[in-house]
Write a structure and sequence with these properties.
It is built from four helices and three strands, in the order H-E-E-H-H-E-H. By secondary structure, the protein is of the alpha+beta class. It has a domain of about 60 residues. It has a three-stranded mixed sheet. The longest helix has 12 residues. It starts with 8 loop residues before the first helix and ends in a 21-residue tail after the last helix.
Length: about 120
């Protein structure tokens, strides 16, 4: 946990999950901007987590683990949480590698074609 700083909801979610699960990968995204909520609402989130702690658990069991850890956030106004949880093997079979980052919305840095 970050000491001496007020954490936003995304940071609190990250800290809580990291404290309670042995994570190989964690991605928490605030998706509130895509919903009809005031700016800065921090109401809708997506969690992608990879942990061997999910081995042998069905999807509903995995979601319950995450939802139980997020109970306080729901009590404090979080409205929705999309949960995507995988074992290391499932993650590798599904994605094989980290997905590519999208191209820059501002366009290319130079007008010429890039060469490798």
């Amino acid at each position: 946990m970050k000491i001496g700083k007020i954490l936003n909801r995304r940071e609190r979610i990250e800290d809580t999950l990291a404290q309670h699960l042995d994570l190989l990968h964690l991605d928490v995204q605030d998706e509130s901007h895509g919903h009809n909520v005031p700016e800065g609402a921090e109401s809708h989130f997506k969690v992608v987590a990879v942990s061997e702690e999910f081995v042998g658990k069905r999807r509903i069991q995995r979601h319950r683990v995450i939802n139980e850890l997020m109970a306080e956030e729901f009590e404090q106004g979080m409205h929705a949480l999309a949960i995507h949880v995988y074992t290391e093997d499932e993650w590798r079979q599904r994605f094989n590698q980290a997905p590519m980052s999208p191209p820059c919305a501002g366009g290319e840095k130079s007008g010429g074609s890039a060469s490798i």
